[in-house]
Description:
The complex is a heterodimer.
Chain A: H1 2-9, H2 14-35, H3 41-59, H4 68-74, H5 80-87, H6 90-104, H7 111-122, H8 127-133, H9 138-154, H10 164-186, H11 193-212, H12 219-232, H13 235-238, H14 258-271, H15 279-292, H16 301-314, H17 318-332, H18 334-342, H19 354-366, H20 370-383, H21 387-403
Helix pairs in contact in A: 1-2, 1-6, 2-3, 6-7, 7-9, 7-10, 8-9, 10-11, 10-12, 11-12, 12-14, 12-15, 14-15, 15-16, 16-17, 17-18, 18-19, 19-20, 20-21
Chain B: E1 2-9, H1 17-36, E2 40-46, E3 51-55, E4 60-64, E5 73-81, H2 84-91, E6 102-107
Antiparallel strand pairs in B: 1-5, 1-6, 2-5, 3-4
Amino acid sequence: MVAVLTRIFGVHNLALAEDVVQDAFCRALEVWSFRGVPENPSAWLMAAAKNRALDVLRREKTARTYEPELSRWLESEWTLASEVEELFSDNAIKDDQLRMMFSCCHPQLPEEAQVMLMLHILCGFGIDEVASAFVTTYTAVEKRIPRAKKVLAGSKRLFDTQTATEFSVRLPAVQRALYLLFNEGYHGASAEFAVRAELCDEAMRLTRLLLEHSLGSKPSSYALSALMCLNRARLPARVDASGKLHSLLDQDRSRWDQKLIGEGLQLLELSAQGEALTEYHVEAGIAAVHATAPSVQATNWQEIVSLYDTLMTIRPTPIVALNRAIAVGQRDGADCGLRELGTIPDSDRLAKYPFYHAALAEFELQSGQVGNAIGHFEVALKLARSPMERQFFQDRIVSCQHAC
Amino acid sequence: MSNFAFLYRGRDSNASPEQMQKTMEKWRAWFKQLGDQGHLKDIGHPLETSGKVVRGKQKSVTDGPFAEAKDVVGGFTLIEARDLGQATELSKGCPILEVGGSVEVRPIQVLNM
């Protein structure tokens, strides 16, 4: 809704757009408490926002300037009502969300702020919900979002999604933000399955908007969407209903969503065109190998290692190197895994990453060095970033002690 | 380029909301077309069919105008066109003609003092 209204009022009137939405919700509370919730609440809210927008446009005609290319049609009664009607149509709403998505990825904003802004404006997350999604404090988000909004409102106009060059220049930033949004759900620290699933689903919804746009439906977008489907399919097994984390190695694979896996594989096929091989292609490839493997043992680890080799050439980060080493260990045995872990360049950058120590621990455990394993798990436990991770490492330590 | 006024008469004010919406959709499309071609000087506004009429030195005020619905000016637009011929051609796209209304095309008079 904010996206549509910002399109109408212009990005400099972002606050006005938010007020109108706020107003629509207030009216809803008032009316619904008397007459009950209508059959289609979201349509009701849209209609309320639309009427309120018309009011504002009529009343504040002289006080404000609106989106330049629209203002001529919004200033005359000949076209005002039908123009606003058109702007609230389903297709226009999709366009507006896309436009807002690109606007949120303003180059002056740090990546995390872009993601927070998307969540807040496009996914309707309140400050407290954004804070809980990012496992940070209310006050921190309360400071960051208005600052980000100011940058957004300072840009002269909303991003123009019809200009091919600008679109393709900003597309990678948008894909990156969507990727981060998804990962916040998939890997993030929130212990609640519902929160994680919602974040992943929102990222998938917005990515689909990208695929529906002629300029956005690039192979890399298909790859990103495939990656999300394939990983999302595994989420119910990764975090169970009680908020317990399960590593890939001990997940109940029957809980993987086969429909999503199928969708992901199809999208991956669609992504296989053009010249550019992006990190999303490779990560989706890795996810596809996992998603189609009947068990850990029957996984094609050779394929996974070579995909990680490719990923290292595109995005050589210590985390990618760590995952590659784990895959090597699965392929060649724990000793080789340990050796690979030892040769990771910049491994000191992983020193604070709990799953680095957890990987060391798992391989030590597999080679029978239970004492060493417990030691590594204890380091991981100290570094754990959320209660959920802490619980996970504690459980691992307990099962090591049983193994003694 | 010269300026012209389009005066619309005979708008159907008894239309149902659905018909109204469809009609306004047509008006919007027509205005967009005029705008894209650079003919739209001032889109103007639709007018209610009645108001007050103030007359003479006494400034007497009466309700009105009480003309036949088809004779009342129902709105106006300012158009930019090469000449009266072109302006007249442009007026032929007006949706009001489909419901039996009329467009009066009047050149804006240039007063030299």
